[in-house]
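Review session, final week

We close the course with one last complete record, chosen because it touches almost every idea we covered. It is Phosphatidylinositol-glycan biosynthesis class W protein, a protein from Anopheles darlingi with 470 residues. Go through it on your own first, then we will talk.
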Amino acid sequence: MDAAEYRALHERQMENNNGTTALNVFMHVAPPVFSVFHTVQLLAVTGVSHIPLRFLLEYLLIVLPFVLLVTVLHPLALNITVTLSVLSAISAIHQMRHRLHLTPFVQVPGRSPQFLTCVRALVNLVTAVCILAVDFHCFPRELAKTETFGYGLMDIGVGLYVFSNGIVYRVRPADEKRLTTARIRNVLTGATPLLMLGFARFFVTNEIDYQRHVSEYGVHWNFFITLAFVKVIGTLVMDLVRDPERVKFVAITLLCCHEMMLHLGVSRYVLSVDTQRDGFFSANREGIVSLPGYLALFLASVYIGWIVRPSEEIVLAKKFLRRALKLIIVSGVCWKMLYVCEDMFGISRRLANMGYCFWILAIGGTVTALCMLFELFVYFVRFEEPKSPDQIIKSDDFSIPYVPLILQSINANGLFFFLIANVLTGLVNMLFQTFLLGTAGGLVIIAYYMFMVCVTVAFLHVNNVKLKIW
């Protein structure tokens, strides 16, 4: 098939998708969390400390199963999730049953929460697999990005990135000055790499005539530009608000105003196929109009991060568990609101409407709560005696396989990981007509691509290299 004909085929495959169900999407997101749990248990039992061997085991037990889950094992997603969750519960109960008398003394380190590392790395991992897998026929079309309204696995990528940035945001102390010229300059400087990546992506894809689906963000807009604007505006808003208790009301107010504007005609303007793209705003209307929704999502995520992130150096198990339960309740409310919004407004990534924001908060909150329970379990079963903050955890000790090496590596160079994943995705699509390849060929390419991306960041992490220049 010639290049022009294949490009038209590729773009047709990405259009007019109505998605699947919210439950089905979550059934593809949850298994990696349980895979991490069982991988850590296996590494702890076997005592594997040899880094190459540990990397290989983690790749085979965490990364490769997810590649299979979103391709050939897609019809079994519900069965796999239920099985993994039951096995995890049985394993946890079996290991905890003789240790209940130690509960009051169990301590969890609060200085560097490991569950946040797991959440952020899993978001990167899931996104990296999907951005290439979606270009193959073995990736089910119902999980691809939806055209207007609906649930798709590919729809949650940008939302979960905003969520993962929000939950690690550190609120500035009240005694610091609010907004100064120097502060604004620093915020803009921090967002510069994202803007540069956004502009570079546009110019490169335009220059090589790479296939694009303009209804995702617009003609010139893309994922990186959305993240840059959300980072800048969200940081400045937080500098003004300061109090995390107040920021939840700002997020709710902004989200309600955004939904109201959409219903007053903005959504019809954005989604109409008759609206011409003859000016900058109209050409990029999806990216621009969705910004208030993503900003509200960021602010809500900051509040969730404030709920769950310990402010003390050491947290007792009871207090840590209380925070996890509070997050479970918040996530449950978001799941309920999701179905209310589905009936009233619909769920639209293109608009980042109220339903979409509650959907992302529900998924992100549930995954974070699972990771918190996992962290509590680890310190519960490893409990020996009360320790000092410096003794309780050594993050650079690879002989303690709590957070898998691959996830540590991804989190240490998250932006670089996502950048090379995008570059390799582009190269694969330039070298192969991916939609014409069979299932076996597609799986080999996706698995090799993920191996190369993961081994690159693992090499950097083991050698203490952090590619962050701002």
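Two points worth writing down before the exam:
Residues 392-401 have pLDDT under 50 and may be disordered.
The first helix runs from residue 3 to 14.
Good luck, everyone.
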